[in-house]
Amino acid sequence: MDLSTLHSFRVAACDLNGQMRGKRVPPSYSDKLTKGAVRMPFSALNVDLWGADIAGSPLVFESGDADGMLLPTDRGPVPMPWLAVDTALVPMCLHDDAGAPFAGDPRHALASVLHRYAQRDWSVVAATELEFTLLDASGPQPQPPVNPVTGRRLTDEAVLSMAEMDAFDSFFTDLYDGCAEMGIPAQTAISESGIGQFEINLNHQDAMRCADDTWLFKALTRGLARKHGFTATFMSKPYAEDAGNGMHVHFSVVDGKGRNVFDNGGPKGTDLLRWAVAGCLAAMPGSTLIFAPHGNSYTRLVPGAHAPTGASWAYENRTAAVRIPGGAPAARRIEHRVAGGDINPYLMLAAVLGAALNGIEDEVDPPAPITGNAYEIDGLPQLATDWADAIAAFETDPQVARIFSADLIRFLAMTKRQEIRRFGDRPPEDHWLSYLEAV
Length: 439
Fold this sequence. Notes:
6-stranded mixed β-sheet; 29% helix; Ubiquitin-like (UB roll); 9-stranded mixed β-sheet; 15 strands; alpha+beta
């Protein structure tokens, strides 16, 4: 894409909440991006949900609110099909003036984990399944959208309904076209179990590209929904009594010869797979904040609501937090089923893949795989049940400390505590407005 021909374009990096922070720049910047011409305060990636500085953060007054350099990632520029004027977005990462990665940049956190795999001559292949809800946000509370065919508001669940998919055909056609333009590998789409809820799967690919595309897909979906006259949200629980939005990730690990290290030729998988599972389970309670980063997230993490609340694993069992899908042994993989749709994809993948590698490094065997309904099994290690407990666990968990830098752990904990305080000053019935299109 020739950026110099555009009226202007955007440069943006991902903040701790997964929001895009950056600038609109003229085409004359097209040949300056790799030289660090675009600068931004380090604190901009560690603001709260609304974009406010974090009180007491060492990135603000203590350090003079210093700037870093935004440098392009290897994802390259992408079009922005949800805007009326042809333009582009260049995904960026934040570095200091010596070129060192900024510890508070979520993409660098994932890069650090993937570097640990690369040191073993391994690479990670990952795919995400993203649930989102279409709704009408014009009133004092969210409500289901109007069916474009019937003109009536949706009222009921419509799991795997082709009629409901077809009713929103214009939106989904634009969404698939937008994915094609942006190079996002969208696969199957389905009508899910919630009212106005849908799911689209992204194809397996390099783990960093998977995180990039998940981040971009969320922006594309929200933007195109606005063009079609309704709202798309990835918030965990748009309606208190309806299904929540999850985001499952599948991953496998490939060695330098292109072999899946989880494949033993049979259905059970290798020791490496079981060690990776053990690592995922060990880090799960302490990583709850990554999988459930907002107050609204905890309305989804309740027993019996299709969102795992206990650290368990199983073969072909969707009630478990970690599932080993069946199928051809060459495709043996791990499905991590805990995260909500409101996650930061870079932090989520870093938490999952870092935990798996912790288990492999320790050669730890997991407990026996469960059978039956995980919600009815006593004694499973539990995820944090509320936001404050999740923050405290994240700060002190030794498995988390092996995955994320001390700076990122500190920055995220400070951010989330400020959000708790600020939500406490807002009427609970208005909280949904803060999450609606921000997460």
